UniProtKB/TrEMBL annotation:
Residues 694-709 have a biased composition (Basic and acidic residues). The chain crosses the membrane at residues 272-297, 309-328. Residues 561-580, 678-709 are annotated as: Disordered. PANTHER family: GLYCEROL 3-PHOSPHATE OXIDASE (PTHR42720:SF1), GLYCEROL-3-PHOSPHATE DEHYDROGENASE (PTHR42720). Keywords: Membrane, Transmembrane, Transmembrane helix. Residues 612-669 form the BFD-like [2Fe-2S]-binding domain. InterPro entries: BFD-like_2Fe2S-bd_dom (IPR007419), BFD-like_2Fe2S-bd_dom_sf (IPR041854), FAD-dep_OxRdtase (IPR006076), FAD/NAD-bd_sf (IPR036188), G3P_Oxidase/Oxidoreductase (IPR052745). Gene3D superfamilies: BFD-like [2Fe-2S]-binding domain, D-Amino Acid Oxidase, subunit A, domain 2, FAD/NAD(P)-binding domain. The keyword Hydrolase does not apply. CDD domains: GlpA-like_Fer2_BFD-like (cd19946). Residues 66-245, 379-549 form the FAD dependent oxidoreductase domain. This is L-2-hydroxyglutarate dehydrogenase, mitochondrial.
Length: 709
């Protein structure tokens, strides 16, 4: 067994993964700073309107779109970007409070090669072609892609026979470069792997991404190129119109905390307007008073002999005072003297940050998980009705319900829950490749061990079918024991006490057992992209190409001219760093840009680029602001967390450590020009199997015991 830790390259630390390979920090500037290669995301200086992107589709002023995409996971995002290459108007709607809030957020991030897929299936048809598109995609969108390769381990001669079958299946699917390696080469590649493993199937073309960062990159680029995104829009109905279009009814919801706060603001504004009206009436009435126009200035007694005097007193003094003193419905909102302190106070409430969730039920996970209307305590604020010539159903776990709206009951979504544990970066050296056991014929690829792009060791997932009570009702401790014991079989030496986060995702498995990518049989104006379970992330760019083909060749949308202004490139949000060089940390307020307008743009950016907002991940104020000024709406620390990693480190935003979540919320409030009470927080406990957001020694010891079974 190897005793020395090998060097671990971590995305953003002294370099980045770019197009599959490592790029040293010295080479990043010349690769990323060419302004002709950067798209319009770099030029925005303001934030988006709430709950929608800044761009309207081709400056449309009516409610008719060529295409409406339902669902903003990695599939919907890939389709949106592909359609932005054409001169078509596209409305993209998402039920949750951000893109990538469903299954895309809760998965391994593996770009599979496709050797495990059944030949002839849609899985097999699109996985390998999609896999091959990732290096070029990353060079355009710069989301970070590592070509790390995968290994399927064999522990017996019977397992080795299975590896041969997998290799043959992969070659049938067109997968290249597969080979079976012996124990010696396996140990050279993975010195910390279980010594009982005697061989492995090696696929050098497998890679990994951070799935939500990949999706955000696709989404930003799609919107930059003309797609209009609206979040917090739940599709309630779809009806056919007489002119062969589809009328879509959307429920626009917002978190209750936001609605309550804006109601208070609206009432305050209404008070001021009412006072102004009363004063204007009083002034107008006084202008007709004889005291002013007759020249009898010395006759003060005349004031009290005219009823107009009392009218003016009543409208100009009494009524404004009554309005001013009247209580606001629902109680007044407290003044924010210090947004950081206020954000910390919100964070420390019993239920966590404002807008936080509780354990997320599977039904909610199918429509946005911890960002769904139910979990966020959403309140309907309006109904929107739009018309589209075509609808692309990318609604994930809700796609069967979308199909039913047009009379299609040909498939059902049977969610399969996958649970994960995430370990600190000091465990990342234990795996260079993605490590799998031999796949289960029913449950799939099995529990894996992998080092993420950012250097954390990820363990999981489970495969819990939600229609099976024994799987659905597993206790958190049983889930953890299952993951830890299975992963110990792959890499025995990881330390479970280094666990600091847990999460889950619901895979949208279909009753047909394969991906559904087809024109709807009951409504030719709808295309289903449904039941996209693993390896859907890998297949997503190839699936998007197929959707365009279906639109043109089978659905009848012939008039799809290329967009001559399509800009394929996107600048990264996160700046790679080398230690603490050029960075400053300190107590809240010391390095913050309290009044951005008091500095020149260059001075402001220089100060923000040095101000560390998240100590664990070394996220700067400038990175947070740049994320805010991109093309997608952000109004919560969770949105910033997914884009900059602020709050994703070891301390998980612990207020007693550095208070990064409160700092982030203060910046969001400042940039959006809203009270900090309107800024959403990170949901907790959401889908976590841990009992505490900030894990203590007792829970760490429990995890160690569960690893031993």
């Amino acid at each position: 067994m190897a005793t020395e830790k090998r060097e671990l390259k971590q995305h953003g630390v002294k370099g980045v993964y770019y197009g599959g390979s490592w790029l040293d920090i010295e080479d990043c500037d010349k690769t990323f700073s060419n302004p002709t290669e950067n798209c319009s995301t770099c030029n925005h200086k303001t934030t988006c309107p709430r709950s929608r992107s800044r761009n309207a589709s081709l400056d449309k002023t009516d409610y008719l779109y060529d295409i409406c995409i339902v669902g903003a996971g990695c599939i919907g995002a890939a389709v949106a970007r592909e359609l932005s290459k054409y001169q078509v108007s596209v409305l993209w709607v998402e039920a949750a409070d951000d893109v990538s809030q469903g299954a895309t957020k809760g998965n391994s991030g593996i770009v599979h090669a496709g050797y495990d897929d059944k030949p002839g299936s849609n899985h097999a048809k699109f996985c390998w072609p999609g896999n091959q598109m990732f290096p070029a995609l990353d060079k355009e969108l710069r989301f970070g892609y590592q070509l790390n390769g995968s290994l399927v381990l064999a522990y017996s001669e019977e397992d080795k026979k299975h590896l041969e079958e997998l290799k043959q299946r992969g070659e049938t699917n067109g997968v290249q470069n597969l080979r079976i390696i012996d124990q010696k080469e396996l140990r050279e590649r993975e010195p910390y792997v279980n010594p009982e493993a005697i061989a492995a199937l090696y696929s050098p073309d497998a890679g990994n991404v951070i799935p939500y960062e990949f999706t955000i990159a696709l989404a930003e680029n799609a919107v930059d190129n003309g797609v209009e995104l609206r979040i917090r829009r739940q599709v309630n109905a779809i009806e056919k119109t007489n002119d062969n279009c589809l009328k879509i009814t959307l429920d626009h919801w917002e978190p209750k905390e936001y609605v309550d706060t804006t109601t208070q603001q609206s009432n305050t504004n209404a008070k001021l307007i009412l006072i102004f009206i009363f004063l204007a009436i009083a002034v107008q009435k006084m202008s007709t008073h004889p005291f002013f126009y007759s020249g009898l200035i010395d006759d003060v007694n005349m004031l009290w002999t005219d009823t107009k005097t009392y009218y003016c007193i009543f409208t100009g003094i009494v009524l404004p005072v009554i309005v001013l003193l009247a209580p606001l419905p629902g109680g007044g909102a407290s003044a924010v003297k210090n947004v950081i302190q206020t954000a910390n106070a919100i964070l420390n409430q019993t239920m966590g940050a404002a807008g936080s969730g509780t354990n997320v039920a599977t039904d909610s996970m199918l429509v946005g998980g911890s960002g769904s209307k139910n979990i966020m305590g959403g309140v309907s604020v309006g109904q929107e009705i739009i018309t589209a010539k075509y609808v692309i159903n990318c609604a994930g776990g809700f796609s069967d319900e979308i199909a039913k709206m047009v009379g299609d009951e040909s498939f059902q979504i049977k969610p399969r829950l996958g649970d994960y544990l995430l370990l600190n970066r000091n465990q990342g050296y234990l795996a260079s490749h993605t490590l799998f056991p031999c796949p289960d014929p029913v449950l799939g690829k099995g529990v894996l061990v992998q080092t993420t792009l950012w250097g954390n060791l990820i363990l999981g997932p489970t495969a819990r079918d939600m229609y099976k009570p024994e799987a659905r009702d597993m206790s958190p401790s049983s889930v953890q024991e299952y993951i830890l014991s299975k992963c110990k079989r792959l890499v025995p030496s990881f330390d479970p006490k280094e666990t600091f986060h847990a999460f889950a995702g619901a895979r949208a498995k279909s009753s047909r057992g394969d991906w559904i990518i087809e024109v709807c049989q009951t409504c030719p104006q709808m295309i289903h992209v449904a039941g996209i379970d693993s390896p859907g992330l890998a297949g997503s760019p190839a699936i998007a190409l197929e959707v365009v083909r279906l639109l043109q060749e089978e659905a009848g949308f012939k008039d799809m001219a290329k967009n001559p202004n399509f800009q394929p490139n996107r600048a990264p949000i996160i700046t790679p760093k080398s230690g603490m060089r050029g960075l400053k940390m300190g107590p809240i307020g010391k390095n913050d840009v309290a009044d951005p307008q008091s500095l020149s743009e260059s001075e402001r950016e220089k100060k923000m680029a040095a101000n560390v907002i998240c100590k664990c991940e070394k996220v700067t104020e400038l990175e947070v602001v740049r994320a805010m000024q991109r093309s997608l709406p952000i109004d919560s620390s969770q949105g910033i967390r997914k884009r900059t990693r602020a709050g994703m480190g070891h301390c998980q935003g612990d207020p007693e450590n550095y208070g990064c979540e409160a700092r982030v919320r203060a910046i969001i409030a400042r940039e959006n020009g809203v009270p900090v009470e309107e800024v959403g927080g990170r949901p907790w406990p959401a889908t976590s199997t841990l009992t505490q957001r900030w894990i203590d020694d007792g829970e760490k010891s429990d995890l160690e015991k569960r690893m031993e079974g």
